[in-house]
Design a protein that fits this description.
Elements lengths: L5 H21 L10
Amino acid sequence: MRRDANAPASGAAGKLVVHLLVRGYLQPASAGEGEQ
């Protein structure tokens, strides 16, 4: 895996978006039950 200028930024953004989507998709009503 090479570290380009867009590699870390793109990866972080993608992971963040996926995390938020999964969180809001799997537990929309229990968003603040287990985490935070």
